[in-house]
Amino acid sequence: MDPALSVVRLTVREAIHTLSSSEDCGLILSTLRFLKRYLGETEDPALPEEQEEFATVHFSAFLRCLVIKLSPVWLELSPDGQLEELWDSFFLKGPADQAFLVLMEALESTAGPSFCLMKMAQLLANFLSQRRMAALMEEQCRPQKKPGFTLLQETLLNKVVGLPDHLGNRLQQDNLALFFPQNYFPLLGEEVVRVLQGIVDALRGGLDCSVSFMSRVLGKICIQGRQKEILDVLVPQLTVLTQGSCLWQRVCWRLMEQVPDRTMEAVLIGLVEATPGRPEVLSRLLGNLVVKSKKAQFVMTQKLLFLQYQHTTPMLQSLLGYLAMDSQRRPLLIQALKELLETWGSSSAVRHAPVTQQHYLSAAILICLAHLREPELRDSQDELLASMMAGVKCHLDSSLPTVRRLGMIVAEIISSQIHPEGPPLKFQYEDDELSRELLALAIPGTSDSSTVLAGGSAPAPTASETLAKTMDDGVESANGSDPQVGPQGSDSDLDSDDEFIPYDMSGDIELKSNKAPLYVRDCMEVLTSSEDMERWEAALRALEGLVYRSPEATREVSVELAKVLLHLEERTCVSGFEGLRQRALVAVIVMDPARVAEYLTSQFYALNYSLRQRLDILDVLTLSAQELSRPGHLKRPTQQVSCGSGAPVLATSQADCTGVSGWRTVVEERIRSKTRRFSKQGFPRRELASSPSEFNSVAGYFFFPLIQHFDRPLVTFDLLGDDQLVLGRLTHTLAALMYLAINTTVAVSMGKALLEFVWVLRFHVDIYVRRGLLSAVSSILLSVPAERLLGDLSDELLEARSWLADVAEKDVDEDCREQAVRALLLLERLKDRLLPLSH
Amino acid sequence: MAVPLPLPPPGPQFVLRGTQSAVNALHFGGGAQAQGRQLLFSGSQSGLVHIWSLQTRRTVATLDGHGGQSVTWLQMLPQSHQLLSQGRDLRLCLWDLAEGRNAIVDSVCLESVAFCRSSVLAEGQARWLLALPGKGSDEVQILEMPSKTSVCTLKPEADAKPGMPMCLGLWQAESSPRPLLLAGYEDGSVALWDVWERKVCSRVSCHEEPVMGLDFDSQKARGVSGSAGKALAVWSLNGQQALQVCSTHQLTNPGISDITVRPDRKILATAGWDHRIRVFHWRTMKPLAVLAFHSASVHCVAFATNGLLAAGSKDQRISIWSLYQRT
């Protein structure tokens, strides 16, 4: 055996012996100082071989011994704190990995809360703040030959990443702020950058290094869900560092490549999240990772696009932009587009996927299209076109307006990209936030410009630009001066226009010649036979008022009039035609509910009506039921007449009305001030005039004919088949009628019928239908008296309840889930209300 | 930056009812010599002239001098208590209203059955000029009053064929004593006559339809005319006594029956066949308000010296408005 080595061994053994037995401060201090020679950094360091041996063989054992000795009494042996300082220095100066492991081990084995535990936690905090963690990790990046090295690394990895958890568990309430995850991981991020800097320097110096430990650390942190903490520190720094340096980029790519497959997903998602809308950064950090790693490819092209949809649009832009930035990755983008379109065009996906996911998919498609050029699409043109056609069809078939709109927007843009020379596909849809957002995605280049801004590297405007701008301003200001002054300089009136603020002129519309008929029968005649369009329009406009004013005359011709209105077609371009016709129909029903409702409900299931007409029937039934069930509904029409008919005297009706109520309040106020009251009650509260609900006697005419025939398909009308949109509206109408039938005598039997109806259709595939069913259940719970619900409908309710629970948990549509929860809450409330009764 | 919503147009300050027939002519009287008692004269379809007190908002007196024929024009002579009224009975009556009297002191027979309103030029002199439609259908007659001497008859040249005069405006430039006459004709043109020389100084065709009303601002040498069509025309007079159209302003509905610039020349009001009164800023012609109160054609609008606006309508009501008052 090498004599020098045995010298080290002997010294260490002696020192351990001294430490464990001696109480003499001077002796302990001198022993420790002597040993410190082996760590270097003193005036007369030991020989390198001795240092090496001490570090590899004896250091851990010695540290353990130090830990055992640690106690307040022992540290008090040297009152000036020399001993404590020396004690600390062994942990902070010696090999970082061993010191860290011993510390962690000691922290775990020390019973807490105690002085020792706190002392060691403090030491660990010092260890972290003195950047020893970087030293630790850097050590692991050197090429290693020692046996048991992998095991050591594994342990280190666990301890490094799990430090906040371990410390949290040990210290409980006394935990130091530095060990909180939100502080520790950013610090770790800084350390990682430092280590990488070291590696880059080493590589420049021609030394060999491996980043695999760093990759594992990164992966482990990410998979623990701390991507945000560490990447928020890491990504901005790496973004800057990789900007101009190939070496840094290579190191970064290597770092990402070495991330274990198991944790790859967490890292990639974290990175995409950390670089929203900045594909070039992602590209610098990842390189061609997607091409090299199967796992990365799967995450980037499948998981992020198809299996998840919570990510924001800038993230999508960054992800797909990354795919588009390199010629090696571009095939992946085309492949992704194909797959996206395939999913987009699959009718089952459209039917079963939540709306948010469909929105996400659409956005992804549009971003892909913005990146791809027409020549690249040419090969797969037919395939894309086929998917698009299928997709458009199933989107337009959907009963949800959002889904339909998505279909239109995406189809327009795809067709314009695939066939830029052909005639453009154009749908009519309302321009709203959603459509604007999506259309903005489709414009290629917008993402680039935004990134320039986000990067903050927008070049300052050059001098010539600034000059041009100021000149423009000058011209503008010259032109901007009041042009009136020139030709009319003599007009020296000092009246500014400020005092002449125009009033609202929206009422200034074209005056229609007054050809409106004065009787309901005349109106009807004009509507059926008149060729004079102006007269026809005037009749249509006057009808509602006439109907309300002359109930008797209306009743005589009510069904006939309803028929005329139902079949009325828009002959000229009358603004608000639909509304006029609808209001007139509602008025007719309100005037003669039983017969007209009977007629309309029978027509709903008749042959030879268009879907539009059937939908109209449902709408007017709902509206008129609402009108009938409103307390005091008959008061409104008279007012409407005054405003609508244009009778001269009543043009000021508004002012008059307020005048009338005005004098009444004045009089009441006067009476109140002059009246002394002796009772505490005060004056009688004003009550709303109560009147019987008109809907009570006729609810059945509205409801039962509608619910009876839904399962009998006609040649032209199949509610359970293709016409699910109408079925959806029917369920909503029934729900509304049920709700409006509150406090009526037929509510119980209506509820029973409706529950059966719901039960039959409960697994309908269409979201809109399901929403209607759920609202039907809610309105049953609201309208049918609680005692009758539990008495007559208890079985049905039990069944409905389990169905509701199922929907609340599993339905794809958020609205459906919400409605189901509401219905369940109503059920609960019902139970609560009845429990006291049963006791 | 949100644009504040414009205010809804105001309602009338008050409404005078009780003429019991369509109101065809309005004129504010009183002013300085009325000692604060402001009066409004209204001429109705049934031939009566009502004198309204704006303080009590009731009729002070009713003048019946046109034999049940519609009164089309009313004008107070300045600095006197004399009122001129023109009726469809082809008479122009001069009423003496001083000290509560209401008697016809003089009358002129009209020789034209047209609807053209007359015009007066009186600068406080004892003698004043009266322009009224003449015997021939396209003539305008100028009389010197109160002597009723015919000064001249203004007849367009044979080849001009402007049709009947529809509205008249006698005025005098401050710089010269020459009386001038603006006449709107049936063919939509406005002509400027020099009364002394009996010739047309200038003529400008500014409407497609007959000119129904005009008003002239002699300070700015700018006038405005309304017609049966859908536009207002603003024209100006240059130094060479030549009329030229400055601009036209489209209206929503056709038909203007009267047009008046407020005495302070800030705003102008039009009486529309579409039941509405429209208010414009006179300098910029910016539309300021559309007052929808009447339920039939508005026949006449008039401004008081204090800025009050009155409008008379076929629906037998007179509405009084207070808009953009500088108070």
TrEMBL record, chain A:
Keywords: Cytoplasm, Membrane, Nucleus
Protein family per UniProt: Belongs to the TEL2 family.
Organism: Heterocephalus glaber
Subcellular localization: Cytoplasm; Membrane; Nucleus
Record's GO cellular component terms: cytosol; membrane; nucleus
One GO biological process term: 'de novo' cotranslational protein folding
Primary location recorded for the protein, binned into one broad class: cytoplasm
Stretches assigned to the Telomere length regulation protein conserved domain: 517-625
Coiled-coil parts of chain: none
Annotated protein name in UniProt: Telomere length regulation protein TEL2 homolog
Domain TELO2 ARM repeat: 326-423
Organism superkingdom: Eukaryota
Any one GO molecular function term: Hsp90 protein binding
From TrEMBL, chain B:
InterPro entries the record matches: WD40/YVTN_repeat-like_dom_sf, WD40_repeat_dom_sf, WD40_rpt
Ranges for the WD repeats: 204-245, 291-327
Gene3D superfamilies membership: YVTN repeat-like/Quinoprotein amine dehydrogenase
Keywords tagged on the record: Repeat, WD repeat
Protein name per the record: Guanine nucleotide-binding protein subunit beta-like protein 1
Organism: Heterocephalus glaber (Naked mole rat)
